[in-house]
Structure formats: C-alpha cells, structure tokens
C-alpha cells in the first residue's frame, strides 16, 4: 500500500533541514511512509525523519509535520527526555528516537543545535567507513 505524501517539496523548514544535514558524508534522502527520511549511505540506515506524530490515544495521533525525528546518542538521551522541546514520537519513541519541532512555535529553532543533533544521530547508525570520512580520514 502506498502512503500519501505528508510534506511539501517547497517547505522552507525542510530545505533548512536538508542544508543542516548536507555536510555529513554520503547522506541520501528517500520517501518512506509519506515522509522524507535521511540515510547514512545510499542503502544505509535512517538517521532522521522529517515529520512525525504523537499517539494521543488508540487511533488518534497528533501530527508534528515540521519536526525532525532523531536517534540520539544514548549518553544524551536522558537530557533530551527532560527537555520540553522534545517529544517521544509514535512508533519511533520506543526504540529511543526523539522528535523536535522545527516550526518555531514555543521556541526559536537553533539550527546549530539541529545540525549537532543530526550529526549525533548519524553517528549512531553510520558504519566505520562513513565515520572515518566524517572525521576527515
């Protein structure tokens, strides 16, 4: 079953997210379940998802269309869980992923922090070759 697209290709927030991930080696983008996902390597693992949601109750989800879902370093996960800017995304949260709204809403988006979070998530899934490239080796 094909999922409907749940993003706009001209979304300026998505453009900023792509730019923040661009310095990472061999990043690829594909659409999965209607959302853009970033992978480490062409057939690599997903390290970021644009958009997500929170399960409010069975059958009811609260959408976060301008958010990034990330897999944080386990050493940082506790601090992020205590930060009210982050949420536990439906489906991904039980596996340790967190979501961060990027629409500004209740806080200004710190794009330097977003780039750091993307790199941290990238490091959790990238293989040794990509990590060497990231380190400049």
TrEMBL record:
InterPro entries: YjbR-like_sf, YjbR/MT2646/Rv2570-like. Gene3D superfamilies: 3.90.1150.30. It holds the Pfam family YjbR. SUPFAM superfamilies: YjbR-like. It comes from the Bacteria. This is MmcQ/YjbR family DNA-binding protein. It comes from Nocardioides aquaticus.
